[in-house]
Amino acid sequence: MKVILVLMIAFGSSVLGVGYFTDLLHPTAESRARSNDVVLANLLSRSTTPKTHVRSFIIGNSLVNHEAGRGSDLTSVPYWLARLARQDGNTYAMAGTYTALRDFQDIGPEANWAFDGVTNAWNADGRVSFADADFTSVQINPLNYVQWRGPTEPYWDDNGTPVGAALEVIDVVTAAEPGIEVLIYEGWADMGPFVSGDFPPSAREFAKYHAYNLGEYHDWYLEYVRELKAARPDVSIRLIPVSSVLSTLLTQSPLNQLSPTDLYEDDAPHGTPTKYFLASLVTYVGTYGKLPPTDFAVPPSVHPLVRSNYAEIVAALGG
């Protein structure tokens, strides 16, 4: 269990004492093997040649950008990605939209996201076409509450399938930008089915939630990507396993000390700045093909436990 050993050696057994999940889950050999396989199971090996220049078009939802309601720039992955890239001497520009995947073909590319300190890669005012924006990647973020059916099965309303919707997006963007890389963002699962009362979940419910992210939910994404690759073998399509990697880290010491309210604000679940910062670390690896900079100064808006263990978290991402 290479990743777990890395974390335990780096963090030691003395950090904050007993973990949030202690005595709640006793992993079996099978679940430990799954965790080791899913995890950081060499996250870097999923990536291509390291990049220094990224121009990203994002078709996402609030698991990537949660500015509405109680959110802000701090609850968005691009905000953190841009800062990590700058510290690492890389460039990052993006354009993003909340367009649902199955509506994309009718609506076409839009750009309505903006964040402080993040370079705008394109807007839809007509002066520069989408094809001329020179995007290097498109990041696709499926809904997080459709995994109760297979990715090739119809949506709840029988209007298309998750794979079919993604293929429509892929066809539009690759026609405009041949050679563009397609990145599938594995956002975290809907927490609602795991919470019996009001948010936050009990410790046991939270443990079951993470187990789902590491199990059936992650398996859905693996099948999703396999189907996309089979349908479009000439397109570079890769998974950024945000949910499964974070659930691995968050169920091991010391990050298992973080409570549900340290990470989420509801059972949708929309995240806190700490959650989106952690998600950006995994996304950085998947996007740039290398680890985030270890000398990044994590600001006070991120939980102190993450700040104090930042370098070790980055090392764990490398397996």
| DSSP helix fraction | 25-40%
Question: Outline, from the CA principal axes?
Answer: globular
Count, helices:
12
Extended strand count:
6
Distance between the termini: 10 Å
Radius of gyration: 19 Å
Structural class: alpha/beta
Major sheet attributes: 6 strands, parallel
Question: How would you describe this protein?
Answer:
With 319 residues, the protein is of the alpha/beta class. Helices cover 38% and strands 9% of the residues. It is built from twelve helices and six strands. The protein has helices at residues 2-11, 29-38, 77-87, 104-107, 162-176, 203-214, 216-231, 242-250, 260-263, 273-288, 304-308, 310-317; strands at 53-59, 91-97, 119-120, 137-140, 181-185, 237-240. The chain has a six-stranded parallel beta sheet, with helices on both faces. The longest helix is centred in the last third of the chain and has 16 residues, at 216-231. The protein starts with a helix and ends with a helix. The model is unreliable at 1-38 (pLDDT under 50).
